[in-house]
Amino acid sequence: MTASPLAITSRDNPLLKRLRLLVQDGTAYRKQGQVWLEGDHLCRALLARGQRPLTAVFTESFWPQAPHDLRDATDHVVTVPDALMAGISGLESPAGVGFVWALPPALVVQGGTATVVLDRLQDAGNVGSILRSASAFGFGQVLALKGTAALWSPKVVRAGMGAHFGLRLIEGLAADDLAALDVPMLVTSSHQGDWLHQARLPWPCAWVLGHEGQGVGEALMARAGAFVRIAQPGGEESLNVAAAAAICLHASAAGLAS
Q: How confident is the model at residue 237 (pLDDT cuts 50, 70, 90)?
């Protein structure tokens, strides 16, 4: 049964103030323990994973036509004028619906799990894209070292397109924390190691992806079980890290399938 929405009309409402902070401050989720998911796709991705939001926020214009799965996602439903949603939105074209979702409990590094390690990646788009590839190719855990873009920031969440909800995500780690992985660590390199298309890739494993400019740090290079290069017959100096990640993770998945 659809809950009756609570109409919010003041921009100074406490809920709207919290939402603006979540959108404007990429790390505010750490203090609030909540994430703002804006738009039909992200909201449905959450529901598809069996999760429920704390609050559903609809614009006044969208509420009358909103599908029942979104209407019925939670008992706490509010409507806001379209102009107020535009003041919250981080999108060029504000969406008609958004969910407030409680972050999952803090996790510990899980050994024996196919993993992606992010070493100080800075670009939110790259990080979100890598999360999508990790989820698509069967890597259940993503570990972010200190200095990596905040995994639950609005930009990373949008770029992840729902992949967040199917992954074990842990951030703020140091290199020594990876000792608990207990799987071979594969480091991408532009100048050493086996060619990816010829390499025998272990499963499970941990692919290590480094800073866009500096690459993988020395502490993780020292822990590498193997170095892997991607053939680039076109002669480019290097690949974008998100593109390299997709190629490497697909190679692992393809090898498993065969």
A: low
- Asked whether 91 and 79 are in contact (CB, 8 A), the reply is no
Query: pLDDT band at 140, cuts 50/70/90?
Result: very high
CB 6 within 8 A of CB 79: yes
d(CA 214, CA 80): 45
Cα–Cα nearest to 226, from 216, 237, 235: 216
Q: What is the pLDDT of residues 70-88, one digit of tens each?
A: 999 999 999 999 999 999 9
Instruction: Specify the DSSP class assigned to residue 72.
Output: T
Which residues does residue 153 pair with via DSSP β-bridges, in sequence order?
none
d(CA 134, CA 62): 33
Amino acid at 215: G
Determine the 3-state secondary structure of 79 from DSSP.
strand
3-state secondary structure of 192: coil
Distance CA 250, CA 121 (A): 20
238 token code pair: 């290097």
Look up the pTM and report it: 0.93
